[in-house]
Design goal:
Rossmann fold, 15 strands, 12 helices, alpha/beta, 377 residues
Length: 377
C-alpha cells in the first residue's frame, strides 16, 4: 500500500512554502506544520506582506501561506500584487469567525488566491491540531501544483471558442435538440478551486429578476461557507443565502450548499424543495457537485447545469446523468478555468452540451431563456 499523500507524486521534490504571518506563535506553528510534512519544505517565513514581496524573487516559493490580517499591507492587497508581479499559488490562512477576515479572504480568492483554510490558533486545547495540520499541509501541497500563469480569454482570442459537443452522443429522451431550453425551471452551478472568482463573474452578469432559482455547490472549508454566501450576497444582483432543508425554491435566489451537507432537490413537481443530507462524500466531496447534478436529472429538460473551474472529477458523473435525462449542461472552457479538472472530466465523459469561457456563460443562459429573462431569444 502506497504511503503517498494527496498532492505528492512519485519522486516529486517537496513544494517550497513561503509562510506570511504576523503572529509569532502562529508563524512558528505553520513552520512546524510545513517542516513536519514530507510533501513540503520551508522556503522562508516572514511577518509582513512587504517582506514577502521583497523575498519572493530570491526565495522562488512554489506556494504561499498567506495571513489575511497583516500590519501595513493586508493579505488582499498582497495577493493582488503577488499575482500581478510574481504569480504564485496562494493559500489564505484565515480566522473563520471574524467577519472582517472572512470578507478579506473571499476578496483574496476573487483576486487570485486558490483556497482558504482555517487558522490553527487554539487548536491544541480543542484536540483538533492533527486534523487541522493535515488539512493545511494538504492544501499547500495540492495548490503548489496549480499553474497560475495561464492564457486569459478575450473577445478576439481564437483559443477560447464556444465548443458544442454532438447532441446525438447523448440524445434527449424525446429526441429534441437541447438548444431549445426555454422550458428550463431550475439552474444548478458547481465549482471548486478558483470557484469564488468564477462564480462572482457568472452571477454578477445575471439580473436581479433572473427567472430561475439557482442551487450552488462550492468546495470550500465548512467554517467558511456562511461567510462565502454572505460575501457573494453583497456582490451580485441576486439574493444569496445558505439553503435550508425543506425550503421552497424562489426564482432569482441562490441557495448555497451548507458546509458538509449534500444539496439536492426534494419533493415532486410542482412542490420542489431543497433537500440536505449527510450522505457519504462523493469524489471525496460533501457537498458534491455530482450529487446535486444527479438530483437535477429528475427534472429532465427543465434542468440547467453549469460546472466551473475545479480540481478533480466531481460533477462529471452528475452532468452525464443530467444530459441523459434531457437537461442542458454547460462547462467552463479551458481558456478561463483556473483548474481545468472538473469541467474537463465532464467534457471527456460526454456530459457537456456546451463549453464556454466564463464571460460567455451568463449571456448564453439569458439568450436561452429568451423573453423570460428580458432577452431576445
Amino acid at each position: 500500500m502506497s504511503g503517498r499523500q494527496p498532492g505528492q507524486q512519485p519522486g516529486q521534490r517537496p513544494a517550497r512554502v513561503l509562510v506570511v504571518e504576523d503572529s509569532a506563535v502562529i508563524r512558528r506553528l505553520l513552520v512546524h506544520i510545513v517542516e513536519s510534512d514530507p510533501r513540503l519544505t520551508l522556503a522562508g517565513a516572514v511577518e509582513s506582506a512587504e517582506e514577502a514581496l521583497a523575498a519572493i524573487p530570491s526565495l522562488r516559493p512554489d506556494v504561499i501561506s498567506m495571513d489575511i490580517r497583516l500590519p501595513g499591507m493586508d493579505g488582499l492587497e498582497a495577493t493582488r500584487r503577488i499575482m500581478a508581479l510574481h504569480p504564485t499559488p496562494i493559500v489564505v490562512i484565515a480566522d473563520a469567525i471574524e467577519d472582517a477576515s472572512l470578507r478579506i479572504s473571499m476578496n483574496a480568492l476573487r483576486s487570485g488566491a486558490l483556497s482558504v483554510v482555517e487558522k490553527p490558533g487554539g487548536l491544541f486545547a480543542g484536540g483538533g491540531y492533527d486534523l487541522a495540520a493535515r488539512a493545511i499541509a494538504t492544501q499547500l501541497a495540492i495548490m503548489s501544483e496549480v499553474p497560475v500563469i495561464r492564457r486569459r480569454a478575450s473577445a478576439g482570442d481564437p483559443a477560447a471558442p464556444s465548443v458544442g459537443l454532438p447532441i446525438g452522443l447523448l440524445e434527449r429522451g424525446d429526441g429534441s435538440s437541447a438548444a431549445g431550453a426555454a422550458g428550463v425551471r431550475i439552474m444548478a452551478v458547481a465549482a471548486s478551486t478558483g470557484g469564488p472568482q468564477a462564480l462572482a463573474r457568472l452571477l454578477s452578469a445575471l439580473p436581479e429578476d433572473f427567472p430561475l432559482p439557482v442551487l450552488l455547490v462550492q468546495h470550500i472549508g465548512a467554517p467558511f461557507v456562511e461567510g462565502f454566501a454572505n460575501w457573494l450576497d453583497g456582490l451580485v444582483p441576486l439574493s444569496v443565502a445558505l439553503g435550508r432543508d425543506g425550503e421552497r425554491l424562489v426564482p432569482g435566489r441562490v441557495y448555497v450548499a451548507p458546509g458538509d451537507r449534500h444539496l439536492t432537490l426534494d419533493g415532486s413537481d410542482p412542490d420542489i424543495r431543497i433537500g440536505l443530507n449527510a450522505g457519504a462524500p462523493v469524489s471525496g466531496q460533501r457537498p458534491s457537485a455530482s450529487v446535486l447534478f444527479a438530483s437535477m436529472a429528475a427534472l429532465g429538460p427543465a434542468g440547467l447545469g453549469v460546472l466551473l473551474t475545479g480540481m478533480g472529477e466531481d460533477g462529471a458523473a452528475g452532468m452525464v446523468a443530467m444530459r441523459r435525462a434531457g437537461g442542458f449542461t454547460i462547462t467552463e472552457h479551458e481558456s478561463t478555468a483556473v483548474v481545468y479538472g472538473m469541467p474537463a472530466a465532464a467534457v471527456q465523459r460526454g456530459g457537456s452540451c456546451l463549453s464556454l469561457p466564463i464571460e460567455q456563460i451568463a449571456p448564453r443562459i439569458l439568450a436561452m431563456l429568451g423573453p423570460r429573462a428580458g432577452t431576445a431569444p
